[in-house]
């Protein structure tokens, strides 16, 4: 369980978010949504203590996250942050093995269990064939899968994911989020795609204008009038197999100009 209460946080004395709170119960997948720059990553980074809030408290299973250190923090929380560039000459298998650190003795040789965990994590994201490749040579989507595999190998009870579907092709976007839902971990995930959020999150938190504008089920939060207000876009709700999905159109759609079409008149 992750509980954030009355969080105010920002950079260089300037607050990005004021008095925000959220709760992710055991096994729940909570989606953080909102326009660019609304503070989704900032709030997520506060949840794993990469950022210190100027006010408020983050509890992980009722313990302040700031009290968790080293291996204990890593056993409890796994993170896929945005763009973690590395030019280190490490293989994909070694990259995923880093996720095993909280379960291994320092400098210990790779155990059979480590081998199994790495292979199984790579297989789950469809990247087993990449195991011997150098991580820095992978494509964006391949890297993203490997970073997700690393968090799986970590076997943490809580997952914090910042746009994990970034770079993934459409099938893997769905596969990844379905898999996250099946892990049974407590998850907070930043998503831009509101249809993915509606399909795979049990609860959504909508950030805008320095705070939380709405929180609740996808049906409650993805209300067309709210989306028009926050994103400036029309959203037409449709039900697909009983799941809310949205069809978007611009609020003030200008007439489309096609360069190749004949000029009227
Ligand atoms: N390290 C930083 N120093 C100063 N300002 C920052 C820093 N990181 C983010 N910001 C600012 O904080 C605000 C919120 O950024 P954040 O990355 O949390 O937004 P976001 O909702 O995740 O955005 P996006 O959807 O574009 O990824 C933005 O105005 C951004 O410019």
From TrEMBL:
Pfam families hit by this protein: ABC_tran
CDD domains named among the record's database cross-references: ABC_Iron-Siderophores_B12_Hemin
Domain named ABC transporter: residues: 2-234
SMART domains, alphabetized: AAA
Keyword entries, A-Z: ATP-binding, Nucleotide-binding
Position of the signal peptide: none
Coiled-coil boundaries: none
Recorded GO MF terms: ATP binding
Name listed for the protein in its UniProt record: Iron complex transport system ATP-binding protein
Species lineage: Bacteria, Bacillati, Actinomycetota, Actinomycetes, Micrococcales
């Amino acid at each position: 369980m992750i509980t954030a209460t009355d969080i105010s946080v920002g950079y260089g004395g300037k607050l990005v978010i004021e008095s925000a709170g959220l709760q992710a119960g055991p096994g729940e997948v909570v989606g953080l949504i909102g326009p660019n720059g609304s503070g989704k990553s900032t709030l997520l980074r506060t949840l794993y203590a990469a950022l210190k809030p100027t006010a408020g408290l983050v509890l992980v299973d009722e313990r302040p996250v700031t009290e968790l250190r080293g291996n204990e923090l890593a056993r409890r929380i796994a993170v896929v942050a945005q763009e973690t560039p590395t030019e280190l000459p490490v293989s994909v298998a070694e990259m995923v093995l880093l996720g095993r650190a909280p379960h291994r003795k320092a400098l210990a040789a790779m155990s059979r269990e480590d081998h199994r965990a790495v292979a199984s994590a790579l297989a789950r994201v469809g990247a087993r064939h990449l195991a011997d490749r150098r991580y820095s040579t992978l494509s964006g989507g391949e890297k993203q899968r490997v970073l997700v595999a690393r968090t799986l190998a970590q076997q943490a009870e809580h997952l914090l994911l910042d746009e994990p579907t970034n770079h993934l092709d459409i099938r893997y976007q769905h596969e990844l989020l379905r898999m996250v839902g099946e892990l049974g971990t407590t998850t907070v995930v930043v998503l831009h795609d509101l249809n993915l959020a509606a399909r795979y999150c049990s609860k959504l938190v909508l950030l805008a204008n320095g705070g939380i504008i709405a929180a609740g089920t996808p049906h409650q939060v993805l209300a067309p009038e709210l989306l028009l207000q926050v994103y400036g876009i029309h959203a037409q709700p449709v039900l697909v197999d009983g799941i809310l999905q949205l069809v978007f159109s611009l609020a003030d759609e200008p007439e489309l100009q096609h360069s190749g079409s004949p000029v009227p008149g």
